[in-house]
Structure formats: structure tokens, C-alpha cells
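Holo prediction — pyridoxal-5'-phosphate.
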Amino acid sequence: MEKPKRPKAKNYKKIWKLSQKELNTEYFSINKDGELVIHEGNYQYNIYDLARKFNGSSLEIFMPYVIEDRLENIFKVAKSYIKKFGYKSKFSYHFPIKVNQRKEFMLPLLSEGAHLETASANQLWLVKKLYMSENFNSRIRVVCNGPKTLEYINLIKELREKGLGIVPIIESEEERKLFKGFPGDTGVRINLKTRVKSHWDKKIDQFGMTLDEISDMGRIRGLKILHYHLGSQTKFENDHINGLREAFDAYVKIRKQNPGLDTINIGGGFAVPYEKKRLYSFESLLSRIFKNLKTWADKVGVPHPNVIVEWGQAVTAPAQLNVYKIVLSKKISKGIAKYWYFINGSFQNDLLDIWAVHQKFHVIPVNHMNAIYRNRVWLAGLSCDSDDRYTGNDYFLLPRLEDLEKGEELYIAILDTGAYQDSFSGHHCFISPPTKVILQNGIVTVARKREGPEDVGKYFGW
Ligand SMILES: Cc1ncc(COP(=O)(O)O)c(C=O)c1O
């Protein structure tokens, strides 16, 4: 049945910043009824319909094809610049498992040609599980970061013996001793002096060694990879290049004692435009990486280093969105926002980075996207915790609830939630996590079913 016509705001398509590749929103559009639509080639999904179908449950909606597109694009762009600049070495992508350890995220990455990066013995157990299933291409390489417990080291050695290409990244003199006699390739992690604009740029962190410490080690058995990680969500492209310059100079120095060193692993840090403001692109950064490395290497007469990137959130974050129903509202008497809108979920549970690092995720309505009148609102979660809220930079402008039609409820979507949030999630106040659905080939599949209080209770021994 035709829906009754509501007056529409003129500029509503612009307001929500959808359908823009440089903002990672090219998969989203708004239909003529003002509802959010996700596109997968010639398939499309009406998110308002989907949200109502799972009525009562918040949703995490995962789009594997987005991950595939993004990684494919990275490979395509890297290949084109390697050709353009006459770069003589290889490029590879290692997926840092910590960014999203869910199976449905990892499998499409592997099928696109991702290698892996682990941060713990348990993650390596996961790799072993995949490796033993004999589905792995024998060329896959795994770099192992993070503190090397005995369990972790034994697993590295076991997998190496089983024939897996595995490279422990040594982070201290103590760790080096633990790998004494390790017959395979190794790496070292350098703690660069370069500081970047990023939430994670700590003055002193627990990872890696200074150049002097690495140089003092002299020859390091099997050394192949110089690894660093400047910090996640590195805001400026120039910061990446400044870090690369310092790392390259260190690489040249370390190589004098370790001629087998042939790879620079620049770690993660490629920023996601969470706030829907333009940042840099894979094209611009990869072009500068290859152009600079070639110039620098040719100048000092060393072979072009192989390049590894571990860009985690840049590949996975845009592949997921969370959808919530507004279940309550409440007037705010003093404040720049006029209403609290309560969601059927919890920011502290589902999107911990809002609380932990003040991450600003982009919020859009799922229905009534063409509303003329909008309220200034703050969002609140269902837990009775004063930190369970999300106020954005100042407030959000979302459709007025009084303008909804009878029986209509307002749903909102929070974009770019595919990195880190799943592994941090919890069950504060016994609140159910979102139902997880996968959109693929025009079909919606449930990857994690809706959990009721009985399911949540099991986590706590009830
Ligand atoms: C060693 C290493 N590589 C890669 C990453 C992924 O970073 P991002 O998701 O910002 O790309 C991290 C994140 O902490 C890291 O520590």
C-alpha cells in the first residue's frame, strides 16, 4: 500500500553524507520513503524493514563484500604504484586479528589474499586451527607480535616445524634470548621517535626497542623484518611518511649488521573517516610510500625493501553498522541538547570505544531520513550507568518522535563499527548484545542469534 506523503526536507540527501566513496559511505543510499538502503552490486537491502523484522533486538549488520572490496582495492592500488615507480620488491597485507577476530570477518580477508598478524598465543591457536584444516595456501605468512609467553613461543616453534611461514617479531633482548636457535625468519620491532597525531601516541609504550638497543644486539639470527606501528587512527598522511623516513634510516643502519633484512612492516594506523570528514586515501598514501622508499633506497644503494601493511580498522570498520531502536525519550532541561533518546542497547557494551577513547561514530536515522524537523538530542544506552551515553561533538540532529506516524518507531544506525568493538563488548547491566546479521548475495543470514536474559545469564553462571 502507498504510504501517505510526508513533507520532505530539501537537502536531506546531503545531511547524512551517504553515497560518498571518500567517506566510505558509497554502499548506502536513501529510498523515496526516506529509509536507509544498503547496496551490494545489484542487490539491495532495506535496513528499516530489516530492523523491524528483528524487532526488539538491536542489530549488528556485517557486509563481507565491503571488506573484500577494500582489500582488493589496496592490492590493486599497490600493484599499480609498484609498476608506475619501477619498485623492485613485494607488497603484502597482514590482517591484525585483534581488530576483528570473528570468523565471518577473517574468512573473506583470507580469501582475498590477506596474511595474518597475531598478538597472543590464543590468536595463534586460531591460526593453527585454520592451518590444520588444510585449507590454507602454503604461502601464507604469519607475523607474531605481542609479549611472547612460553605458550606463545612453543606454538610459534610448533607451527614453524609443521611448515607454516611464521615470523616472530622480537621486542626485547629478553625475547631474543627466548628465540635462541630458532631456525626460521625473525623480525624486530622498533619504537620510533616520530610522534603522530593519534589517540594512541603515548610518550612511552611497552612495545619494541629503540634503534640503539637494536643496534647493540649486533647480528640477529634470521632477521628479515623491521616492524613498527605508529599508533592507530593516525590522522595526518604526513605523519605516516615521517615515520617511514625514520624507519627507513633505521633499516639501512640495521641492515649493515644483518644483510638478510629485506622488509619494512609499517604496522597499522591508516585512519577511518569516522566523523565523515575527508582524510587521506589508499591511493595517496600508497603512492607516497612506494615513491619515497624507491627514492631513498636508490640514493643509498640498498635494494627496495618489501613492504608489509597491517591496516586493520581501515579495512574492517566500514564493513559493519549497528542499528538501534529509540525506545524512550526524555526532555533535558539544562543542556545544549533538548532530549535524551534511549537506544535498545548499550554504548558501553556494544561500542566501547565511545567511552574508552571518545571515538566519534557517525549517526544517521534509518527511517524518516527526510524529516523536515529534527531535535537536538543526546543518545543514552539502557544500562543505568551515567557513562552509557553518546553525545557526539555537541549533539545529534535526529527526527522528532512526535512527527512519526502511528505505529512507526525511530531507528538509528551507527556506521563504521567493524573494528575492535566486537572483541571489547560486554554485558554490563545484563543487557543483550545485538543480533548479528550478514548481508551477502542478496541474502540475510544470522551469525549470532538474539540473546535473551537466559543466554546472558549463562555468561555469569546463572
Ligand atoms: C602491531 C599492530 N599492527 C596493526 C594494528 C592495527 O592498527 P589499525 O587498526 O589502526 O590499522 C595494531 C593496533 O593496535 C598493532 O598494534
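READOUT: Residues 85-311 form a domain with the TIM Barrel fold (CATH 3.20.20.10).
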